[in-house]
Write a structure and sequence with these properties.
23 helices; alpha/beta; single chain; 4-stranded mixed β-sheet; Rossmann fold; about 10% strand; globular; about 50% helix
Length: about 475
């Protein structure tokens, strides 16, 4: 598999292939069920979880309503603390800014903290085109990079791999990227972690430039926050001389006090921990402590357009916890690669089409990658109503798409019928009297027949409800 999502098929075709991969489904089923059970237990410990969830939603909504003001406040605070702020309208501009900063330091390699924003803009590929090698230091991202693979999960990018596959990847590929895997490497988690630690240590000690994202950006102080579980982030954020952080503009929060809410919501929703093992915070630069040069790249890349949609903008509340992926029956069976984006699962099905637009076949298919069961909304720590946004985006696809003439005609006919009660009643009576002639599946070729291949047409009652009501409830009683 190549290192880019470009050229991947639309979700139905990709899912048709991935659901036949029994090993993939076994890996995903085991991992997602384990994570979601642990998350449920961690959340149940807090009596005020519902109030925290509402607070997180309200803080995000208030921030989005005044995003311009908070971003300018953050820029002023970062600059006052010794950092430099760059604004990137799209992926190409962000990649150019980062590449120019690295080249200005005379470097040809960088170490990276796990970052969804840099995956979104394809930074690694853009740097490679400039002769710069980006080394992923998160364990799961390292597995993906060494395996010439693609991330398939927001929190655990290599969730589709089992221990045996990881051992084989380390044994075969580590030597090409640096220190080889130890001889006789087993698939014990401790041995795999030790192999990764030895491989990465030389890169941490050698690198002069690091690239990160951020989980949060506190506007009042200009403080950036990265939460992680392995310590690789702490190494990248403190050892190199130059730090470059690519951060989506929606990651800003107004005050330091607001951060307290999210540092309770995020770890329990993502890793099912009460708090993250490593929470790194930095504000600009400080002589003799950490990087001497700090650059913040504020990324738009479709976020302003998303903000303009009153229904769809709630996707920008997302704190990248991945709880929705772990409860989604579609994701569990299809896997992350089927979504054709760094953002898989339910949140990807609403975020990606808004960031990239609905023009391509891949993006137009994503709002349909759901059963609308609502499990994603129930676990979302910032109460994003993902089913509502999915239906909203489906409406946009239907309105903007070509074809579907039969569906449009059927909807127009239904609209007219529902607007004329007498005609509706007559149609119901005719349908009830001819119900013995109705097929359980449509015999005609085409999409309608395919739809009924997995569904039975509902059986009609002997008489319409309104006729039954008139006959049995003449006095209007209940």
């Amino acid at each position: 598999m190549s290192g880019t999502y470009l050229g991947m098929p639309a979700f139905p075709e990709a899912a048709r292939t991935s659901t036949r991969n029994t090993q993939l489904r076994a890996n995903l089923t085991h991992a997602t069920r384990t994570i979601r059970d642990k998350r449920a237990a961690a959340v149940a410990e807090l009596d005020d979880w519902a109030e925290l969830r509402s607070a997180g939603r309200d803080i995000k909504d208030r921030t989005l309503r005044h995003l311009d003001r908070y971003l300018l406040q953050a820029e002023e605070a970062v600059t006052a603390a010794g950092g430099a702020v760059h604004w990137a309208a799209d992926a190409a501009e962000a990649n150019r800014i980062v590449a120019d900063l690295v080249k200005a330091k005379g470097e040809r390699e960088v170490v990276k903290v796990k970052s969804m924003a840099t995956q979104e803009i394809g930074l690694n590929e853009a740097l490679a085109a400039e002769g710069i090698t980006a080394y992923e230091t998160d364990l799961a991202e390292l597995i993906v990079q060494l395996g010439d693979d693609l991330p398939s999960h927001i929190l655990v990018p290599a969730i589709h791999r089992n221990r045996g596959e990881i051992r084989d990847i380390f044994t075969e590929a580590m030597g090409r990227w640096g220190r080889p895997a130890p001889d006789g490497l087993t698939d014990r988690p401790a041995d795999l972690a030790e192999a990764a630690r030895l491989h990465l240590r030389e890169k941490f000690l050698r690198a002069k430039v690091a690239v990160s994202g951020a989980n949060f950006l506190v506007a009042e102080t200009g403080t950036l926050v990265v939460v992680e579980s392995e310590g690789n982030g702490r190494m990248c954020l403190t050892l190199p001389e130059t730090l470059i952080s690519v951060v989506g503009i929606e990651k800003v929060i107004p005050t330091w006090r607001d951060l307290e809410v999210f540092l309770q919501l995020l770890p329990r929703s993502s890793t099912a921990e009460r708090m993250n093992p490593y929470t790194s915070m930095w504000t600009g630069t400080t002589d003799g402590d950490g990087p001497s040069e700090f650059h913040l790249v504020l990324l738009d890349n479709g976020r302003t357009a998303t903000l303009a949609d009153q229904v769809g903008r709630q996707a920008l509340r997302c704190i990248r916890c991945s709880a929705c992926l772990n409860v989604c029956p579609v994701y569990e069976r299809a896997g992350g690669h089927a979504y054709g984006s760094p953002y898989p699962g339910p949140i990807g099905a609403i975020l990606t089409p808004q960031l990239r637009g609905l023009q391509s076949e891949v993006d137009a298919s994503l709002p349909y990658a759901s059963t609308l069961c609502g499990a994603c909304y129930e676990v979302c720590p910032v109460a994003i109503d993902i089913p509502e946004v999915l239906v909203h985006l489906r409406e946009q696809v239907a309105e903007g798409g070509e074809g579907h003439r039969a569906e449009r005609a059927a909807m127009k006919a239904a609209t007219w019928l529902l607007d004329h009660p007498a005609a509706l009643g007559a149609a119901e009576r005719v349908a009830a009297r001819t119900r013995g002639l109705h097929p359980r599946r449509l015999p005609l070729p085409g999409p309608a027949k395919a739809w009924t291949d997995t569904r039975d047409l509902p059986a009609l009652p002997p008489e319409p409800f309104r006729d039954w009501w008139k006959k049995n409830r003449k006095d209007g009683s209940r």
